[in-house]
Amino acid sequence: MSLHRISRRVFIQGAASALALSSLPGRPAFAQTTVRIRPEWQEFRSTTEYASLIDAIRTMRANTNAGSRSSLQYWANAHVNYGQHAIPYFLGWHRAYLYYFEQQLRIVSGNNNLVLPYWDYYRNPQIPAEFTDPARDNPLYLPRTNTNVFSALTLSPFNPSIWNFQRGTSNAFEPLLEDAPHNPVHNIIGGIMGTMQAPHDLLFFLHHANVDRLWHAWALPDGKGIPWTSSPYWSGSFRVSADLTLPRSQCYHPNWVGTDYADNTTPTALPAQALKKGRIMRVQAQLGRQRGRPPVGDFAATGPRAIAAGRRSIGGARDIGLTENSVSVQVPVAQDADSRRLQTLAVRPRERPQGATPADGYKSVVVVLDNIRMLPAGKAGGFYYKVYLNLPERGDAAATAEGHLLGTIGSFEIEAASHHAHHGGAAQITFPATDVLANLPADGFRELTVSLVRVSGNNSPKGRAIAIGEMRVEVSTEEAYDLTPHVAPPANSPYRR
Ligand SMILES: [Cu+2]
Question: What spacing in Å lies between the alpha carbon of 198 and ligand 1's midpoint?
Fold first, then answer.
């Protein structure tokens, strides 16, 4: 297999340098002439580059000068201060970030052939053994809460219906991939991986190389719904750190940052751990077959009210504590007008009768987790929650759960939200719910139920781990669907070759 890899590398290097990349309209003038193949960890560890990577990480961990690009602290700070999470460009920003970090690895190691390997947890969800050996001189070892990420995995982003790219659109890949497996891999591992300081753990970079690979694999062969580089979407630059920027458009395709992957296929099945003790684990969570939704907790209701311009709460509940047990939260819809709004919004724009527009200018529904924070029992991470809307009360909730899923929450998302909140402000996590609502049977909408299904690893904590000040359902004047027609990339796109 390495023979194949080497010949491919040589071919790509030759092909790329022979092409006058900058002469094509819409294609940015980038100087990348070498495309290096990032291998999977199991292959990488037997290459001569392995020792260079270990050396570089040992050096960068020992360097405590946060102002130096040769310290891991520099990269952790860049991620904390400039990382884009739960907002547009999650994938593009991290591609730029890996590009510069990989260059730094080459500088620190002095090995110009060094590349970042990726960890394909869809093949092996167990953290590679090199990372879990607690020997004092092992620069890859850090204390982590769990060592297997099987329960973080999902095939949802690779469903053929997921064709759009940008968030704010239905069927969009970027927010879906960020939501899972990206966030839950951070959360299930826990320790520093469950925080914004995650780049202290080399596993962060293997995880993100895999996320980047999955993006490219999904986009093949035709670029799917990724806007072409002439779109305003790609104008401007990413700020990667205090002193590094990269044109956004350069992150359209991995070759433009000098990267390709040993395997460019999307996962088609969950790994073997899916079959434990002869039993198929269906939603990898506590949603058992024939069990219905988790029991409804006893929470104080909050009333409907205006939240901000264009945002209205139609009801909620306050002081919700999340433990190792799953729980459902009931949201009464007290006002008839709000029930009617939900009824209107539960029909996708293309399926609405002609002329029917959402009442009062409200165009979307969101579920807001306001003033959400980690409690001491949850600080070491190692768990997350899947958030569902209106799971069936009885019967096989697991069978249809996918269509009810709003997203996931764990320490990683909560910390990211805290960074976005202004000084002393409350962290808020918002899940788009319009498209999920449109999947539900229209039942009058007198009440909504949000279920928080706990997903644990082998070593996850017990007790109150997360507190939510208020969970509420809001209608908003923001558009839930992108109805602009998609323009296919031109013939000179690397996704058209
Ligand atoms: Cu990440």
Answer: 8
Tell how far the Cα of 229 is from the centroid of ligand 1, in angstroms: 25
- Cβ neighbours of 445 (radius 10 Å): 21
What is the identity of the amino acid at 12?
I
Q: Ligand 1 mean position to 417 CA, how many Å?
A: 14
- The CA 359 to ligand 1 mean position distance, Å, reads 39
Per-residue pLDDT of 78-87, as tens digits, reads: 999 999 998 9
The predicted model scores a pTM of 0.91
Q: What is the pLDDT of residues 142-171, one digit of tens each?
A: 999 999 999 999 999 999 999 999 987 778
Topology of 2-272 in CATH?
Answer: di-copper center containing domain from catechol oxidase (1.10.1280)
Q: Residue 118 Cα, ligand 1 centroid: separation in angstroms?
A: 13
Tell the burial category of 318 from Cβ atoms under 10 Å away from its Cβ (0-12, 13-18, 19+).
middle
Output the CA 473–ligand 1 centroid distance in Å: 28
- Strands 428-432, 364-374: pairing is antiparallel
Task: Give the Cα separation of 152 and 180 in Å (integer).
Answer: 7
Q: For the chain, what are the domain ranges?
A: 2-272, 282-476
Mean pLDDT of 57-73: 98
pLDDT value of position 206 = 98
- Cα of 61 to ligand 1 centre, how many Å? 19
Closest CA to 253 of 292, 301, 212, 312: 212
Distance 185 CA to ligand 1 centre (A): 8
For 436, other C-beta atoms within 10 Å of its C-beta total 20
Residue 470 Cα to ligand 1 midpoint, Å, equals 27
Q: Whole-angstrom Cα distance, residue 341 to residue 353?
A: 15
The pLDDT tens digits of the residues spanning 24-49 come to: 455 566 655 689 999 999 999 999 99
Q: Compute the distance from residue 178 Cα to the ligand 1 centre, in Å.
A: 8
Looking at the DSSP bridge assignments, the partners of residue 246 are: 238
* Sole residue written with tokens 């780049």: 199
446 CA distance to ligand 1 middle (Å):
38
What are 427-445's pLDDT values in tens digits? 999 999 999 999 888 778 9
Terminal-residue alpha carbon distance, the chain: 25
Task: Give me the residue label for tokens 């009885």.
Answer: 394
Distance 12 CA to ligand 1 centre (A): 28
